[in-house]
Amino acid sequence: MQPSKKFILFLLLAVFLLAGCYITPVRHLAADIALVQVGQSTREDVLIFLGDPDEQQVLSAEAEKWLYTQIKTSGMEKTPFLGKYFGSPEVNQVVITFASGIVSDTTFSSVDKDELDWSDDYSWQKKN
What is the CATH number for 40? Predict the structure, then answer.
């Protein structure tokens, strides 16, 4: 038996629509940082709560910093070619400092991406 063209078309449409539902995992730094307790949480705890860090910096044999960054954009800001006219993305950052494998300090910050543009305003600054 040969499947009808309508059935094949419906099946292809369903596959494409379901593929559009896939999204990459999203971090919720503002909520997840509340799970980290200074003086109690370990590196393993932080990995469970926040996942792998975006950057790591070794300060000494006993101290280390981990940086987590999340850029949140609205649906309008994601619009091709026109998104830049609908505002700027929000950048959330978490810095976690470890001393001997235990969290010694946490910092959360949230700014609009265009607030960070001042760093490119001066011609005398080195470009990275």
Answer: 3.30.1450.10
- Specify if 39 maps to a domain: yes
* Contact indicator for 66, 96 with CB cutoff of 8 Å: yes
Residues 6+ apart with CB under 8 A from 66: 46, 53, 55, 56, 57, 95, 96, 98
With 80 as the cut, is the pLDDT of residue 89 above it? no
pLDDT in tens, 46-59: 999 998 999 999 99
Give me the number of domains the chain comprises: 1
Residue with tokens 């080195």: 126
Contact predicate 69/91, CB 8 Å: yes
Which residues lie below 8 Å from residue 1, measured CB to CB, with a gap of 6+? none
Domain coverage including residue 98: 27-120
Are residues 93 and 67 in contact, defined by beta-carbon separation less than 8 angstroms? yes
Domain membership of residue 103 (yes or no) is: yes
For residue 53, give both structure tokens.
């860090």
From the list 121, 96, 110, the residue with the least C-alpha distance to 46 is: 96
